Amino acid sequence: MTKASGVTTEQTYQAALADINGDGFLDLVSGGKVWINTLGESSKHNYLKVRLEGAGKCNRLAVGSRVIVKTGAKTFTRQVEAGTDSGAQNDLTLHFGLGLQKGPVDITVHWAGGGVTTRKAEVNRTVSMRKS
Length: 132
Ligand SMILES: [Ca+2]
Known about the structure:
Elements: E1 15-18, E2 27-30, E3 33-35, E4 46-53, E5 66-70, E6 75-79, E7 94-99, E8 105-110, E9 116-121, E10 126-130
The protein binds calcium ion.
């Protein structure tokens, strides 16, 4: 983090990201402080959030599942993770910052424990997907 970002904290190795206020832009928790990202208020950038629910051979939180989002020109990949090596926990809802990429986008979920699910979605929303 730079001073220009406005984020100041004691030196720490722990940080977690989540869209705390639900505006589609990631916020930061570190060193016992919360920073709400206010850049989204004037941004024209798009996002997509994907929330997974596992079933069967996939754990309920879908930890280990990989999500691929394809726009017309770009591919974005995220994986549901349970904690980081520094003891922090990012939001289990996956966040894709799409920049100026517009929808609809193609979503492919490779579920932990096996299986693949696909669907289309518009941008700037949260999509919930459950393993069948
Ligand atoms: Ca936010």
